[in-house]
Design brief:
284 residues, alpha/beta, eight-stranded mixed sheet, binds adenosine monophosphate, binds manganese (II) ion
Amino acid sequence: MQTKPVIPTNFDFHSHSAVSDGFLPPREVARRAAANGVDLWALTDHDTLGGLAEAAATAAEVGMGFVNGVEISIEWRNTPIHIVGLGFDAQHPGLSGGLEALRLGRVERAQRMSDALAAIAIPGVLEGAMRYAGNPDLISRAHFARYMVEIGIARDVPGVFQHYLTPGKPGYVDHRWASLEEAIGWINAAGGVAVVAHPGRYKMSGGDMRRFLDDFKDLGGQGVEVTCGSHSPDHIMHFARLVRHYAFHASRGSDFHGPTESYVDLGKLPQLPEDLKPIWRLVR
Ligand code: AMP
Ligand code: MN
Ligand code: MN
Ligand code: MN
């Protein structure tokens, strides 16, 4: 039986395990969340539901509330964006089938990234990156960056991203992710709620952000991360204002990937502004 707090005091609805690009297995992420005082937790691995059963079982063992989660890679008008899904039925074939297609695309993209790096005399990066991938289907730029640090291409992971793996840089390749409509459709069909992940990270004008949020709302999206690992106090104020304007619910998530490669630890982030409607109210 799961123990779900009636009113959570420290919910964290964004985190990763080694089933995508995190460092710890789901059970260790669960234990760490509980040890940090998280009382309602979601594992939100990129484009996979593979860690949810272990996460749920461990959360139950340690008496922490748990909801199913996923972070879906989409593109909207050529901008890559992440949509978090929460509280869905993990057995729903629409969601799991859509994610499976996304994972196939990742493998093909990784080969193109590796080819592009080989062309600037950095060979063998796909093979090297695969050694960092807990799940080869979920090969990501994060694994590329970790391997490229190992071979001395840059001093740290952000340095690799800055010089090699972001738009305009030699190891970056364009890619077709899911559409916004697909991601929200899959989540909602499976009984979940769709949330915009870390909106402060997208390089979008204010006008484009509003057009994006208009589309997100029209397509059935319900939440926006207001407090998250990568948001400054200014971001929190800004997105709280947008959430009020659109009457969205607000989410909160650390985006924890591991003890050495995260903005903040599980549960260790500010509370939501008090007047906002917390997203956990919409989640089963
Ligand atoms: P991908 O899904 O393959 O495009 O990889 C994106 C992942 O790389 C994100 O989920 C982060 O974990 C990581 N990441 C993206 N940008 C950066 C950055 N500038 N510095 C460090 N890690 C990053
Ligand atoms: Mn990640
Ligand atoms: Mn993300
Ligand atoms: Mn994330």
